[in-house]
Amino acid sequence: MRLNDKVALVTGAGGPMGCAIALRMAQEGAALVITDISGTRLAETAARIKAIEARTAGLLSHRGNILARAEVQALCDQAHAQFGRIDVLVNVVGGIASKVLYQPFLEISEERWAGTYDINLSATRHLVRAIAPGMVERGYGRIVNVASTDFAGQWGHADYASSKAAVVSLTRVLAMELAPHVAVNCIAPGLISTRAVDVIPDAKIAERIGHTLLGRIGRPEEIADAALFLGSDESSYITGETLRVSGGLAAAL
User: Fold this and answer.
1) Is the pTM of this model over 0.85?
2) 18-61, pLDDT tens digit by residue?
3) Would you state the pLDDT for residue 89?
4) Which one in 6, 144, 160, 173 has a CA-CA gap of 20 to 30 Å to 131?
5) In the chain, which stretches have pLDDT less than 50?
6) Catalytic, out of 102, 117, 140, 160
7) What is the pLDDT of residue 251?
């Protein structure tokens, strides 16, 4: 029970990756605060957490748009009212602000550019501002951000790749500024079986798998295992790092 007596907040908990992380942490004894913009998906995750055998730790399920600072504050106020603190923060929310997945830089609209940066940075920024002061005051905290191997560069993803590079950089800065009691690390997933994969052209998936040493798409549970490691005391001497969970995907950097 690696997270026994710990309180973990997981964003994007209605999606495959966020759900897997929340379930993994629940299995390890954590009290959970979960949030997602979809109430239906969030309820499904909450039901799966409650179904874990012999589970006694608390659960708070809060639907909201955490790109909005006011909604983040409402979430954190409710979490502190129920549990008194947050020990582990996992920032999963991210994506591309367009139904067109790949678009050359010269064709990306200002709306998409701003929206993608908002999705990938605003929630993390708002949550860290709200939660990190309490971690510093108590002298303990774990923050796990989720980027992407695309941070190293990917054709047609100028907005997404550069915003994920910003997440990697922000992780390093936060590790410096919140040291020595709060560890801040980042996971950079490769191609993972989530809803995003459903809209990637088959040829692009085959190309990515061809550049992956393990020769397959990753599972959300494999990201969850990495998040558990970085969110637990097993990673007590690790901070400011970015862990690629990509099956050995060859990246540009």
Assistant:
1) yes
2) 999 999 999 999 999 999 999 999 999 999 999 998 898 999 99
3) 98
4) 160
5) 252-253
6) 160
7) 56
In a domain, 36, yes or no: yes
Respond yes or no: is residue 160 known to be catalytic: yes
Domain count, the chain: 1
Inside any domain, residue 235: yes
> 161-168: long-range contacts at Cβ-Cβ below 8 A with a sequence spacing of 24 or more?
163/116, 163/117, 163/119, 163/120, 163/121, 164/94, 164/120, 164/188, 166/117, 166/120, 166/121, 167/94, 167/120, 167/121, 167/124, 168/242
Residue 54's pLDDT is 84
Is residue 251 assigned to a domain?
no
Tell me the residue range of the domain where 231 lies.
7-245
**d(C-alpha 45, C-alpha 175), whole Å:** 30
- Looking up residue 22, the CATH number of its domain turns out to be 3.40.50.720
Question: What is the distance between the alpha carbons of residues 188 and 166, in angstroms, rounded to a whole number?
Answer: 12
